[in-house]
């Protein structure tokens, strides 16, 4: 190979590295980088049917993160609480199916993290504009906690906080970048986590936002 075959514009091959966060939790850096374009095409397909919207919390605040879902079940929040629903309340129709690229990546990343039998039925699609944040919480609306969470980051980087099993436990901060995947399950399944306010920026793949795909098994296994 001669040096002129390399272009600074050519996409670099992914260098996947595994960062252990806690027993049952791992950050797979760049794990979704090679699939990022296909995943973003999937986001465009999903949001053409079920557009991003800002949901309200049970105490009446509008969430700063815009959300939608795909898969058999979708996570929704309104005045009555948080839950999974088979119908999109904004359209009174089923959520769009999970694009094949989503399902494949979620299964592979879970397997890489030591969860070989992950069968997600829900994918929450989060869009963070600069300033949007997600306060520290547990993912606990799912039917059982035997399956992990697979969380894919695309676009602008975000500061992810990963804590313990109690809200007051110390948190560690990780910068999640385009193509990074975090998986937590088993003893880490109910660990608190959150995302600090997104900083201003512009990303070649997404523009001025961050997209996060959170895959879960929400219904009965
Ligand atoms: C979530 O906890 O649902 C999203 C986490 C993230 O955006 O990285
Ligand atoms: Fe979460």
UniProtKB/TrEMBL annotation:
<keyword id="KW-0234">DNA repair</keyword>
<dbReference type="GO" id="GO:0008198">
    <property type="term" value="F:ferrous iron binding"/>
</dbReference>
<keyword id="KW-0560">Oxidoreductase</keyword>
<feature type="binding site">
    <location>
        <position position="193"/>
    </location>
    <ligand>
        <name>Fe cation</name>
    </ligand>
</feature>
<keyword id="KW-0408">Iron</keyword>
<dbReference type="GO" id="GO:0005737">
    <property type="term" value="C:cytoplasm"/>
</dbReference>
<dbReference type="Pfam" id="PF13532">
    <property type="entry name" value="2OG-FeII_Oxy_2"/>
</dbReference>
<keyword id="KW-0239">DNA-directed DNA polymerase</keyword>
<keyword id="KW-0227">DNA damage</keyword>
<dbReference type="InterPro" id="IPR004574">
    <property type="entry name" value="Alkb"/>
</dbReference>
<dbReference type="GO" id="GO:0006281">
    <property type="term" value="P:DNA repair"/>
</dbReference>
<dbReference type="InterPro" id="IPR027450">
    <property type="entry name" value="AlkB-like"/>
</dbReference>
<feature type="binding site">
    <location>
        <position position="137"/>
    </location>
    <ligand>
        <name>Fe cation</name>
    </ligand>
</feature>
<feature type="domain" description="Fe2OG dioxygenase">
    <location>
        <begin position="119"/>
        <end position="219"/>
    </location>
</feature>
<keyword id="KW-0479">Metal-binding</keyword>
<dbReference type="GO" id="GO:0035516">
    <property type="term" value="F:broad specificity oxidative DNA demethylase activity"/>
</dbReference>
<dbReference type="InterPro" id="IPR005123">
    <property type="entry name" value="Oxoglu/Fe-dep_dioxygenase_dom"/>
</dbReference>
<dbReference type="GO" id="GO:0035515">
    <property type="term" value="F:oxidative RNA demethylase activity"/>
</dbReference>
<comment type="similarity">
    <text>Belongs to the alkB family.</text>
</comment>
<keyword id="KW-0808">Transferase</keyword>
<comment type="function">
    <text>Dioxygenase that repairs alkylated DNA and RNA containing 3-methylcytosine or 1-methyladenine by oxidative demethylation. Has highest activity towards 3-methylcytosine. Has lower activity towards alkylated DNA containing ethenoadenine, and no detectable activity towards 1-methylguanine or 3-methylthymine. Accepts double-stranded and single-stranded substrates. Requires molecular oxygen, alpha-ketoglutarate and iron. Provides extensive resistance to alkylating agents such as MMS and DMS (SN2 agents), but not to MMNG and MNU (SN1 agents).</text>
</comment>
<dbReference type="GO" id="GO:0035513">
    <property type="term" value="P:oxidative RNA demethylation"/>
</dbReference>
<protein>
    <recommendedName>
        <fullName>Alpha-ketoglutarate-dependent dioxygenase AlkB</fullName>
        <ecNumber>1.14.11.33</ecNumber>
    </recommendedName>
</protein>
<dbReference type="GO" id="GO:0003887">
    <property type="term" value="F:DNA-directed DNA polymerase activity"/>
</dbReference>
<keyword id="KW-0223">Dioxygenase</keyword>
<dbReference type="InterPro" id="IPR037151">
    <property type="entry name" value="AlkB-like_sf"/>
</dbReference>
<feature type="binding site">
    <location>
        <position position="139"/>
    </location>
    <ligand>
        <name>Fe cation</name>
    </ligand>
</feature>
<keyword id="KW-0548">Nucleotidyltransferase</keyword>
